[in-house]
Amino acid sequence: MAKKADKTRARLPRGFVDRHASDIRAVEEMNARIREVYERYGFDPIETPIFEYTDALGKFLPDQDRPNEGVFSLQDDDEQWLSLRYDLTAPLARHVAENFNDIQLPYRTYRAGYVFRNEKPGPGRFRQFMQFDADTVGAPGVAADAEMCMMMADVMEALGIARGDYVIRVNNRKVLDGVMEAIGVSEDGQKLTVLRAIDKLDKFGPEGVKLLLGPGRWDGGKEGEGDFTKGAGLDDANAQIVLDYIDGKAGGLENPTFQSGASELAQIESLCRAAGYDESRISIDPSVVRGLEYYTGPVFEAELTAEIPNEKGDIVRFGSVGGGGRYDGLVSRFRGQPVPATGFSIGVSRLMTALKNLGKLGQDPVLPPVLVTVMDGDTEAMAKYQQFTQKLRAAGIRAEMYQGNWKKFGNQLKYADRRGSPVAIIQGADERANGEIQIKDLLEGKRLSAEIESNEEWREARVAQLTVSEDELVDAVRKMLAAQAEAS
To answer: CA angle at residue 350 from 357 to 290, to 5 degrees?
Structure first.
């Protein structure tokens, strides 16, 4: 036996979580509904490995010996760096490029899987989480982007989210780049700061964004209060151009980049309206900013606008539960030739939490198993108990045979209670000799037991228990489960 000091301490890695039955089932239920919509739109599944060569992930390669900035990395036996995938898009781009001559373009595909971020974890921010993506590769027109927006609206409704409780918001990186050109911002770091400022509109409002576009902002609102976020350093006139753009007043910008992006947005809007998706479902919104640098055209976000209780019961707005856009340069990186692409990614865990809190998932929970108890440990009796268990399973009823210390029968009923088992199957020597089984309604028994004051009354009442022949096992259990369902 290991000494106490030699025991390994059980601990969960920071930024990771264990998933339990209710969440796993909720995700499977949700993903099945999403998959049905994707399939209806003509998308097919594909699966890529969780590891890729690090250089395939592109911009996440840092200038240092160990490439671990943003990604988890290791070297294989031939000293090449491998990394856990950061998202599902870069692996798709590698797959398309590697199999380009065998793929029918446009290539329409979907996939769900875990992605990994080597970043500082925080509340609601994990290092491993699931995404569910759909992408079209090889379609250069904005009709493919418009279709993505329509599909995401259909996904929201397939998940039971009512119209008015969600919106797909659409913008265009070319429009954003045109605004940057108009204010003379060309340095990548300053561009990123401007984009981050725009992205904070919902949080800080126009005045807060203006500070972030200019000198910077103190978290407390006044100088010296809280942490300081350095601004983009724009003067008041250029900061006002950005604010006018966010407010939809930048239509007068004449540079070609801005006009190209504005034209694409007009086309997307026209296609969506013609297909019956009004502004309450798909909306052109200049404040949409997607973080990843590889977006080259239209960008979009799915936002929940309903007020939803969180895990603590507080009413909150969940906001964005997915997003995507056009990334015409990602496959081209491997091919050296233009390969247009557009896609959408759903944040599975975040959306699942919102749906559960709305009562849209997990409303048909999986029943705990019927428990076949063990009264005798001899071979003949155990064979009977196993036979009963398999008979129930073959009839489609969840069932398990007790596997603990069978000599303490009270422990078996305690186990059934902790498991939430609805029914217990009991056969002692006398019942076995008569070819009979006792079936105990544990849910009704629990309810009635509160009304019985003594052990003597309990023994006389034979609470919620009946005796049937072995041949009647399945029918009797089915009737008892149906009665429980009706009562609940």
So the answer is: 140
Domain 370-487 has CATH 3.40.50.800: yes
Q: Residue 62 has what pLDDT? A: 45
- Please tell me whether residue 439 adopts helix, strand or coil conformation: strand
Can you state the percent helix, strand and coil of the chain, rounding each to 5? 40, 20, 35
Return the amino acid letter for 134: A
| pTM listed for this prediction | 0.85
- Cis peptide leading into 106, omega within 30 of 0? yes
Two tokens, residue 236: 């008041």
Q: What residue has token string 């759909």?
A: 134
In angstroms, the CA 94 to CA 369 distance is 45
Give me the helix-helix angle, 442-449 and 409-419, nearest 10°.
100
Tokens of 287: 């404040």
Amino acid found at 452: I
292 pLDDT tier (thresholds 50, 70, 90): low
- Higher-confidence residue: 121 or 109? 109
First to last CA, the chain: 49
- Can you point out the beta strands (E) in 187-260? 216-218, 228-230
In this prediction, residues 241-255 reach a mean pLDDT of 83
At residue 63, the pLDDT reads 46
Give residue 66's pLDDT: 53
Q: Which residue has the tokens 């609940």?
A: 488
Per CATH, the homologous superfamily of domain 21-50+85-185+242-357 is Bira Bifunctional Protein; Domain 2 (3.30.930.10)
Task: Work out the angle between the directed axes of helices 236-246 and 188-199 (0-180°, nearest 10).
Answer: 50
